[in-house]
Amino acid sequence: MARVTLQTIADEVGVSRMTVSNAFSRPNQLSAALRSQIMDAAARLGYSGPDPSGRALARGRTGAIGVVLTNSPRDAFTDETAVGFLRAVAGTLADAGYSLVLLHSSERSDVDPVRDIAMDGAIVYSCAPRAREVTALHERRLPLVTVESAPLGDEPQILLDDAAGSRQAAAHLLELGHRDVALIVTSVDVADEPLTAEHRASASDTIGRRLDGWTSELATAGVAPRIVGTTGFDVDDVLRDRIGAMLETPPTAVLAFSDLAALEVIEQARARGIRVPEDLSVVGFDDSPLAARLSPPLTTVHQDVDAKGTAAATTLLALLKEEKPTTLTLPTSLVVRGSTAAAPRR
Prior knowledge:
By secondary structure, the protein is an alpha/beta fold. It has 14 helices and 13 strands. α1 (6-13) crosses α2, α5 (80-95) runs parallel beside α14 (305-320) and α8 runs parallel beside α10.
């Protein structure tokens, strides 16, 4: 069977090739009757439309926006905070006529999505600035927005007021009488040691701000916290093992960098017969849907995930219009639930 083209449809209907093209890409330039006639002919002849690559080239945009996550695509949907962020991004982009592409870096030389997929811009979510995916996007000179990440260049950022929320969390524990406090973090290679300036210096941008908030409040009460961490950016096997080791001589309270990390502490504590909150108070960060479902419900720092996703997408859309958006910092606040209580007497 001969290949069906725009010209095939044009000959069938008796119009120009440009008129057929307009029926697909600029339908408002045709009468409803003529466009219906063209689309009926296309359907009858098995023609689905012009090649997307050619259409993107002609329009000067692909209609696709990439998102790079800390997690791999395989794990991206296990974190409800990341899922909520993606949902808000996708909805805002869809309203503007764009689709979302979840990106990752590949070691295969023939296929590398961050290098090869056509897109108009990208959002970088909670990644190290020198991550391979981020540097690859910079090399393409695409419009970028970073979210909870240190920028590699001068791209606009969407941040949380991490320090304010962390200060509230630490103050809450101090009010409850806790003086033996452990901090659970990522991006820092440390196995249950007293916190030092070197630990803070090695932390990622986001974790560094949370450390600043926790320690500024704890220091006012003369509390020197313990710190447990991993060089990764998620709750990995290293962090799980180090949390387990910490619980062999448990503190009275834990401040965790995320709700998922708080859950790991609670589950391992329960397995050792350590009661939450009677023996151990636990505070998370994010206020994901998970937090309210836990038993006991988790005290945590709230962030507005929908606002964060909407802000990221809106900022990128502004960049695509050649506007110059600035960095936006979103508020955080402590939500007290049942996972914290007065410090136990020892």
